[in-house]
Specification:
The complex is a heterodimer of chains A (113) and B (115). Chain A has 113 residues and is an all-beta fold. Chain A contains no helices and 11 strands. Classes of the chains: A mainly beta (113), B mainly beta (115).
Chain lengths: 113, 115
């Protein structure tokens, strides 16, 4: 079965650079969620999109932006990277409705040096 | 405010022992969902179970079982006859959305199963 695809799996950037993370949801899933997990921390919800519109917002820094495209894939754009942005970034997708579960991708490990 | 507390930071057991991971949650919502996820050393988040607030039935899946008690706001997870492959960080999470939206995770419990 198709799963959530995230790319790249690993990314190394320098401070003040920008990074773009991509997420391809499971086919026919209309909702995408982004989470950030710092080293030794629990995942923190950043933002979600439903049908290409932002549906919820968590602790996403102003330096970050995201969008969902017409093919439902999503991109998380991160600018002016800081050392503290080094983390595992998860994307999850679900099909809207009650009792629907979200499926997580394998994550993108971003290292800022 | 919503909150998930996993008081056990790390647990170490020997293979074949039973182990229970505790999870206590706080929410003012009457409808909410509780989850458990497993995060092995490879890093991915593996969904284990979802339970809605109206369903207090305990669930068993192979060596895994879950005990949901609204009276104590707890959703504990037991692994019977633990195996080395069970070694991972286990997260309990809470969502008040209809599906898995804004998930609030606990800090996680790192389980080490030694041979």
């Amino acid at each position: 079965a198709a799963g959530v695809i995230q790319s790249p799996r690993h990314l190394i950037k320098e401070k003040r650079e920008t990074a773009t993370l991509k997420c391809y949801p499971i086919p026919r899933h209309d909702t995408v969620y982004w989470y950030q997990q710092g080293p030794g921390q629990d995942p923190q919800f950043l933002i979600s999109f439903y049908e290409k519109m932002q549906s919820d917002k968590g602790s996403i820094p102003d330096r970050f932006s995201a969008q969902q495209f017409s093919d439902y894939h999503s991109e998380l754009n991160m600018s002016s990277l800081e050392l503290g942005d080094s983390a595992l970034y998860f994307c999850a997708s679900s099909k809207t409705g009650v009792n629907t579960e979200a499926f997580f991708g394998q994550g993108t490990r971003l290292t800022v040096v | 405010a919503q909150k998930v507390t996993q008081a056990q930071t790390e647990i170490s057991v020997v293979e074949k022992e039973d182990v229970t991971l505790d999870c206590v949650y706080e929410t003012r919502d009457t409808t909410y969902y509780l989850f458990w996820y497993k995060q092995p050393p490879s890093g991915e988040l593996v969904f284990l179970i979802r339970r809605n607030s109206f369903d207090e039935q305990n669930e068993i899946s192979g060596r895994y079982s879950w005990n949901f008690q609204k009276s104590t706001s707890s959703f504990n997870f037991t692994i019977t006859a633990s195996q080395v492959v069970d070694s991972a960080v286990y997260f309990c999470a809470l969502s008040s959305r209809g599906s898995q939206g804004n998930l609030i995770f606990g800090k996680g419990t790192k389980l080490s199963v030694k041979p």
